[in-house]
């Protein structure tokens, strides 16, 4: 009989998500970023003191504040809906009808199970249905959804869904090839393995179209 703590460990160690959306509470933004930083600062201080670290040391005394600001302003900044990029689209006046692929987009995310980095590349493609999006907006969408505690499968889906809404087409695809430091630096400690996830919408569900996309990117991702 597996107990609740063992069950939770099994989910985390096997990197299984329990939700297709980021599990954010309704009151997540009832307090300001400054208040969040102060709360997290105290928690980080407690962790370091519990570990036996001397916070009077010049190298460590600023660490709680640095970590708190990093959590709120940087690596988890994508939790804040106010930071969502405006994916402005434009009419496809030049009538380009083939797939557009933006490949090797840098992914820096954080595993929600161990709060360790996920580092890799995203390859995003779409076929215009009369609208096009600025190339940098694709990168910004990837960055926005990456900057939160994540599961790679969910991140892949969120990128596709966001572009499908912006472009008013199902013909969007995303492939992510990434290393998880929760696998590479702890547990099995396999530094060579990476995880590949994909989400194919509309025409990309067609085998020939999907093969064309894979030929474009060739999955030659390097870290």
UniProtKB/TrEMBL annotation:
According to UniProt, this protein's pathway is: Cofactor biosynthesis; 7,8-dihydroneopterin triphosphate biosynthesis; 7,8-dihydroneopterin triphosphate from GTP: step 1/1
Q: Which domain of life is it from?
A: Bacteria
Q: What is this protein called?
A: GTP cyclohydrolase 1
Q: Does the keyword GTP-binding apply?
A: yes
Enzyme class per UniProt:
hydrolase
Give the E.C. number(s): 3.5.4.16
Q: Which reaction does it catalyse?
A: GTP + H2O = 7,8-dihydroneopterin 3'-triphosphate + formate + H(+)
**Which Gene Ontology terms cover its molecular function?**
GTP binding; GTP cyclohydrolase I activity; zinc ion binding
Does Iron show up as a keyword for this record? Answer: no
Q: Which Pfam families match?
A: GTP_cyclohydroI
Question: What family is this?
Answer: Belongs to the GTP cyclohydrolase I family.
Q: Where is this region: Disordered?
A: 1-27
InterPro entries in alphabetical order: GTP-CH-I_C/QueF, GTP-CH-I_N, GTP_CycHdrlase_I, GTP_CycHdrlase_I_CS, GTP_CycHdrlase_I_dom
Domain GTP cyclohydrolase I: from-to ranges: 40-217
Q: Which GO terms describe its cellular component?
A: cytoplasm
Keywords for the protein's UniProt record, in alphabetical order: GTP-binding, Hydrolase, Metal-binding, Nucleotide-binding, One-carbon metabolism, Zinc
How does it associate, per the subunit comment? Answer: Homopolymer.
Q: Which GO terms describe its biological process?
A: one-carbon metabolic process; tetrahydrobiopterin biosynthetic process; tetrahydrofolate biosynthetic process
Quick one: which residues bind Zn(2+)?
Answer: 111, 114, 182
Give the species this sequence originates from: Flavobacterium soyangense
Stored PROSITE patterns? GTP_CYCLOHYDROL_1_1, GTP_CYCLOHYDROL_1_2
